[in-house]
Write a structure and sequence with these properties.
By secondary structure, the chain is α/β, with parallel strands linked by helices. It has a domain of about 230 residues: Alpha-Beta Barrel (TIM Barrel), CATH 3.20.20. About 40% of the residues lie in helices and about 10% in strands. An 8-stranded parallel barrel has the order 1-2-3-4-5-6-7-8, surrounded by 6 helices. Helix 1 runs antiparallel to helix 11 and helix 5 packs parallel to helix 6. It is globular.
């Protein structure tokens, strides 16, 4: 059975309400967790045991990552999109200011970000192969590799040979989020555009690893569907990929469904307690995986999550196209909650007894 079928079957059979506190306690006593134990940690029964979960998660984090907190920032280079996702500010159905940075503008933005001391960059585009073709993205990656030791991509899914091209240009890791693993809901939330192809998107991380990418990231958009089932599925997706490709660096992102703008809101958001619960479960289940906490979350929550489960933090974030060294050229994707400077976040991390890490990878150039 292939990975997609195994994940969807297990997620469909996941009866999270059937677990007891005893099941959770049993899972916490184990050195290595089975899939059923992971299911127990995500269950409602585990909500009464978040304190022992937090203690175990903190131990796992310190054992594998010490007191290090990796820092990075995203750079949106284009917001043109061919998809009609119902929840996204970049949706082709939305009337927004569209924009795309020229290579010269990308270079200026990269210089401005590099001057802050940050040494890891995540390049993002909307999903439009015409406005943001692979040649354009590849050139952006080559520019980024001149300034940053680590370059990530969050773009549309690529073919294996295209991922190989990005890796040759200097990309290190790929982030692709399934949004929801509920196939019926997925189709409803993605009524038009290439993102409508659930299977093709699902297989993206595997193609990226096969192409030579060092790391890959997984996640669901929490609140779009059943957050427990989606979190369980994302965890299984990452687990099975790691089993097949043990050399790959695995990461999780835990974005909550957020407003597109100040006047657009959702009534079914996942709460902070539930978000922390998910992060603790991921940390205990896959202790070697990196967990990123984004600026979607308020400063206090982000800082607290670092000491327990998260190992990676975005900062100096602009969700518009450009905005670091120039006026924005395109509207943003969603509303952020943490707009602190690099210096302020650095100080907050140190106050918690943790160590900000600006680079954990050395790029060897010919």
């Amino acid at each position: 059975m292939d990975i997609r079928k195994k994940v969807l079957q297990a997620a469909g059979e996941y009866a999270y309400s059937a677990y007891s506190e005893s099941d959770v306690q049993t899972a916490l006593r184990k050195d290595s967790l089975a899939l059923n134990d992971f299911g127990a940690l995500l269950s409602p029964a585990a909500e009464k045991l978040l304190e022992p979960m937090a203690k175990r998660a903190k131990q796992e984090r310190e054992k594998r990552f010490g007191n290090a907190v990796s820092l990075y920032t995203p750079l949106y280079i284009a917001n043109y999109c061919a998809n009609s996702c119902t929840y996204c500010g970049f949706s082709a159905a939305n009337t927004i200011q569209r924009g795309k940075l020229s290579l010269a503008e990308i270079d200026r933005e990269l210089q401005a970000i590099s001057n802050t001391g940050l040494n890891e960059i995540l390049l993002l585009t909307g999903e439009d192969r015409i406005q943001s073709d692979t040649a354009y993205i590849g050139e952006a990656v080559q520019l980024a590799a001149r300034y940053f030791s680590t370059v990530g991509l969050e773009i549309y899914p690529l073919e294996t040979n295209e991922y190989a091209y990005m890796q040759q240009c200097g990309a290190d890791f790929v982030s692709v989020y399934q949004e929801t693993y509920d196939t019926a809901l997925y189709e409803k939330a993605h009524p038009g555009g290439p993102k409508n192809n659930f299977q093709y998107r699902f297989d993206s991380q595997e193609r990226a690893v096969q192409a030579g990418m060092r790391g890959i990231s997984f996640g669901a958009l929490l609140g779009l569907g059943d957050f427990r089932r989606d979190s369980f599925a994302a965890g299984l997706h990452a687990y099975y990929i790691q089993q097949r490709y043990p050399h790959a660096e695995i990461a999780f992102s835990v974005p909550r469904l957020r407003a597109i703008n100040e006047t657009h809101a959702y009534s079914h958001e996942v709460g902070e307690k539930q978000l922390l619960h998910i992060m603790l479960a991921y940390r205990i289940f896959m202790p070697f995986a990196s967990i990123a906490i984004s600026t979607r979350e308020r400063p206090g929550f982000r800082d607290n999550a670092l000491g327990l489960a998260a190992t990676k933090m975005s900062e100096q974030v602009k969700v518009s196209v450009g905005g670091h060294s120039m006026e924005k050229k395109g509207d943003g994707q969603f509303v952020i909650s943490d707009s602190r400077s690099v210096a302020d976040i650095h100080a907050a991390i140190r106050e918690k007894g943790l160590q900000p890490v600006y680079s954990d990878f050395i790029r060897i150039r010919d």
